[in-house]
Amino acid sequence: MNLNISKLSPKKIKGNLHDLSTTWDKSTGAKTFSSQQLTNLLTNPIIQGLFAAYDEIVSHEFDDTLPEIPFELDDDDIAVRIVHLVKGNEPLGATIKFDHSTGAVVIARIIAGGAAERSGCIEVGDQLLEVNGVSLLHKQPAEVVQLLSAPENETISFKLIPAKHVVENKPQPTLHYVRCMLDYSIKNDPMHPCPEAALDFKKGDILEFLVCDDPNFFQAKRLGHGSLCDMRNDENESSLDKDEETINESVINRVGLVPCVSFLRKLATDMNSDINMASSSTEPYEAVEKLDPSNNVIRPIILIGPPGVGRNELKRRLIMYHPKKYATIVPHTSRTRRPHERDGIDYYFASRNEMEKWIREGRFVEFGEYNGNLYGTLDEAISTVMEKGKIPVLNAHQLALTMLRTTTFKPIIIFVEPPDLMTLKETRVKMQARLALSGKEFTDADFEKMIQQAEQLQKCYGHFFDDRITNGNLDEAFKQLLMIIKKFESLPSWVPKDWIEKSVE
Ligand SMILES: Nc1ncnc2c1ncn2[C@@H]1O[C@H](COP(=O)(O)OP(=O)(O)OP(=O)(O)O)[C@@H](O)[C@H]1O
Questions:
Q1: Ligand 1 atom nearest to 477, measured from its CA
Q2: 72, 160, 193, 332: which has the fewest C-beta neighbours closer than 10 Å?
Q3: Which residue, by CA, sits nearest to atom 8 of ligand 1?
Q4: Lowest-pLDDT range, 196-200, 345-349, 463-467?
Q5: Higher pLDDT, 417 or 23
Q6: Is 398 near ligand 1, meaning CB less than 6 Å away?
Q7: Ligand 1 centroid, distance to 173 Cα (angstroms)
Q8: Which fold has domain 329-389?
Q9: How many Å lie between the centroid of ligand 1 and the Cα of residue 378?
């Protein structure tokens, strides 16, 4: 029975409640109110007001009111479907293509999670005949796009011929999550079929591939930037994302179309420098998975940066901060041992012949010659530290990254970059007396070169950087380093997929 109780007199309510109260099962021990208490409660002006509001609201119809179907259906229009879509302010979430031989406008793609997909009424291959009562016959592509994207189109009506062949068993993406190894912007891509639906990305971004049933363009969602993205709460926000001003946060989690591998390669070749492949051997997408820190994998920390930026200083501080946890790598040298030097502590001393053989065997992650003597870091020297349960800290040359970024080492690569020129000068000038003593006094030209080299490193190796530190104030930079390491120790991080597979075997 529905009663409009706001219109009942207290006496009538009491009468109704009295009937109700007699049906209550008092044997359950449930707390009951007396009729008098309930009457007092329900005749309270505030409760009365609430009931009045409720009665007012339920007396209205709030269903979406879509416009009447404006089309006259012909008898032979049996296969035609009329679709009304309430899309609000969001885009339609579908792309169209033109069949130039027939002039047909066909739904080319449905964007995952968009208004069109959620409606369940539009499918890939549907042929559009009319939009909002306007026939698409002889319409130019630009005119159709305008009709579809008109801002006032909060609801949109289609007359369409449904696709005859619904594609079954769509191929699943072989790469589910990827790290982007290059920068991609729709501005530099003249071949994109639907620029409005394109998704720009930067090297180091993590994408989730959602739909890969098109040979040339995948639907992808951008999860964020850097190896810790999508894993953190606000407190744990990565320094990489904070500093990445060029990234528009609004595109995070937006689904868009990105070129497939072969298309990107072609684009890189055609456009030469605009779409910059890091090197011809680099794949544009690297398959990644989450590495759980609870696996307690020892991951060497590699500091990359332009010479003089402060990698040695940060490494020294880190090892001093926790010498039982972190260790440097003892290098090999062919020079003769000096009296105070201890083999295996200051250097591993080896003959030139031996070292040349190891170089040929590719066992050095980096090596060089100075004053006629060979110096180098043997991969085994890193493994030796890891076997002792310590975390190796290296300030390696960027060229060593290909040898180091392997499933054997699973390193955390941190880019140490200089601050802006003014801060760089200010911070180093304060230390100039000490720098003069160590023979590392900087000139203005050195500062400018350091910034240029950092930009170059970012351009060529940015896709390998898991996180970054700006070394302006040294104490602050060291705090950043500790914070980054803590995050990698406590949160899952994106690593190349084969690192996970091999570690499970
Ligand atoms: N933030 C800083 N403020 C002031 N001085 C700094 C800062 N960071 C490093 N330095 C000083 O700059 C000098 C060069 O630093 P460091 O040797 O660590 O650089 P590097 O990146 O290891 O380069 P290289 O490989 O050429 O030695 C050192 O004397 C160091 O103490």
A1: 1
A2: 72
A3: 310
A4: 196-200
A5: 417
A6: no
A7: 46
A8: Guanylate Kinase phosphate binding domain (3.30.63)
A9: 25
CA 416 to centroid of ligand 1, rounded, Å: 11
Which atom belonging to ligand 1 lies closest to the Cα atom of 305? 21
Name the strand (E) or helix (H) holding 45: helix 45-58
Mean pLDDT score, 434-457: 86
Fold of 292-325+390-505: Rossmann fold (3.40.50)
Strands 391-394 and 348-349: unpaired
Terminal alpha carbon distance of the chain:
67
The answer to whether the CB of 308 is under 6 A from ligand 1 is yes
Q: How far is the CA of 311 from the centre of ligand 1 (A)?
A: 6
Name the CATH superfamily for 177-291.
Answer: SH3 Domains (2.30.30.40)
Q: Is the CB of 440 under 6 A from ligand 1?
A: yes
Which atom of ligand 1 is found nearest the CA of 474? Answer: 1
- In the reported structure, the alpha carbon of residue 446 is separated from the centroid of ligand 1 by a whole-number distance in angstroms of 12
Q: Where are the domains of the chain?
A: 81-161, 177-291, 292-325+390-505, 329-389
- Note the pLDDT of residue 61: 65
pLDDT confidence bin for 142, thresholds 50/70/90: confident
- Hey, what are 4's tokens? 């409009």
More confident position, 150 or 206: 206
CATH code for the domain defined by 81-161: 2.30.42.10
Cα gap 220→177, rounded to integer Å: 9
Query: Which residue has its alpha carbon closest to ligand 1 atom 23?
Result: 308
Q: What angle do CA 67, 69, 74 make, to 5 degrees?
A: 170
Give the mean pLDDT of 256-271. Answer: 79
| H helix runs in 214-342, sequence order | 239-243, 261-271, 311-321
Atom of ligand 1 nearest to the CA of 309: 21
Q: Is the ipTM of this complex over 0.90?
A: yes
pLDDT higher at 90 or 240: 90
Q: 289, 495 in Cβ contact below 8 A?
A: yes
Is the pLDDT at 51 greater than 90, yes or no? no
